[in-house]
Write a sequence for this structure.
């Protein structure tokens, strides 16, 4: 998706390994420990987030000892749309969720059932029994947008709730959630950070996945195939 400039913020020790794969993106390396886990450095974080319009945090982040400090600092001090996914959600589950209520950021959480269990402190069994009510209550209580992944994806800000029934079995593979977060942060680069933008991103990801499955089959497709089908998905949606 054409968002002008994409900045990948990574631990310094892996910058040379990643660089050959970055053809259009830019990269900002952050200080890290010997295990390639980011270290909290206020000045580096401030510089890495200069002039950005949206942030996605958590994909491939790992479980660094400073992750809680980094996420807390961003939530307390920045004012940008922020998608929290994967290890970002696991980190969020370890801190006081009341930070979400006070944050200036427009926050979008994109959990699957297990991640929502960790963050909400409700069991998967309870979530499965009443996913809509629990997602709505959480979104309203903490002033966030929830995108709860599933065969029918629930998107809610606590006041408006939408159900996205796009996607396919072939998307149940590693990386599909990362693709969705990438689509969302791209859309937030030039659209308002509201529930309808998140719904549109979920639909786009689902349609792209369906087209990838049609081309590669549900067994043969992988997450990157969904990425390749985004332009075709945009054409289909426009038509």
């Amino acid at each position: 998706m054409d968002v002008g400039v994409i900045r990948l913020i990574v631990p310094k020790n892996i910058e040379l390994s990643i660089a050959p794969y970055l053809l259009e993106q830019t990269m900002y390396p952050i200080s890290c420990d010997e295990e390639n886990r980011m270290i909290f450095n206020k000045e580096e974080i401030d510089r890495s987030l200069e002039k950005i319009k949206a942030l996605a945090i958590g994909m491939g982040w790992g479980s660094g000892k400073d992750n809680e400090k980094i996420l807390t600092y961003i939530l307390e001090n920045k004012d940008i749309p922020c998608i929290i996914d994967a290890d970002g959600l696991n980190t969020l589950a370890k801190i006081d969720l009341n930070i979400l209520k006070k944050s200036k950021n427009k926050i979008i959480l994109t959990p699957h059932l297990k991640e929502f269990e960790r963050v909400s402190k409700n069991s998967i069994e309870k979530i499965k029994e009443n996913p809509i009510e629990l997602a709505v209550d959480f979104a309203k209580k903490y002033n966030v947008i929830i995108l709860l992944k599933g065969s029918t994806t629930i998107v809610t800000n606590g006041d408006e709730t939408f159900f996205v029934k796009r996607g396919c079995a072939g998307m149940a593979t590693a990386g599909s959630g990362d693709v969705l977060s990438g689509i969302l942060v791209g859309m937030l680069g030039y659209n308002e950070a509201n529930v309808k933008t998140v719904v549109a991103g979920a639909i786009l990801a689902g349609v792209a996945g369906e087209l990838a499955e049609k081309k590669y089959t549900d067994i043969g497709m992988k997450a990157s195939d969904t990425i390749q089908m985004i332009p075709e998905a945009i054409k289909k949606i426009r038509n």
Remarks:
- DSSP finds twelve helices and eight strands in the chain.
- Residues 208 and 233 are 5 Å apart (CA to CA).
